[in-house]
Design goal:
Length: 132
């Protein structure tokens, strides 16, 4: 809501939105194309933010959001947190289009970092361009 403290804190505040929703004074509104509820390609979000001068973006989302960015090739890095816990069936963490052959699989450059309690972070880097 427009009464939230975040709208009234110092610094640059940007909202990407569809439709004409008023925001508090000083908040930048970046309009997005399309209708509410319509899927929006990650490239549109990133182009809109780039045009506003932002060159680094942290995407913190659930499985659907991260899957869309990954499938679109719009991630430079992906951090996976894993712990020593097997919980069985549940919602998938990532959902990507199927591939016909393993040579079509994503092959990030990875590094693992141990955390306390047996948890680890896997840092997956997706270099841009031809690696050869």
């Amino acid at each position: 809501p427009n009464s939230a403290r975040l709208w009234h804190t110092p610094g640059r505040r940007i909202v990407l939105q569809r439709g004409n929703h008023p925001r508090p004074a000083g908040v930048e509104i970046l309009p997005l194309p399309g209708a509410a509820g319509e899927a929006l390609p990650p490239s549109i979000l990133l182009e809109t933010l780039r045009a506003a001068g932002l060159t680094r973006v942290l995407v913190e989302g659930g499985a659907t959001t991260i899957s869309h960015f990954l499938a679109a090739g719009a991630l430079d890095r992906l951090h996976l947190l894993m712990g020593p816990l097997i919980i069985g069936s549940g919602l998938p963490g990532l959902s990507l289009p199927p591939i016909d052959r393993l040579d079509g699989a994503l092959r990030p450059v990875t590094r693992c970092y141990p955390l306390c309690g047996g948890d680890i972070v896997v840092d997956c880097a997706f270099p841009k361009g031809d690696p050869e």
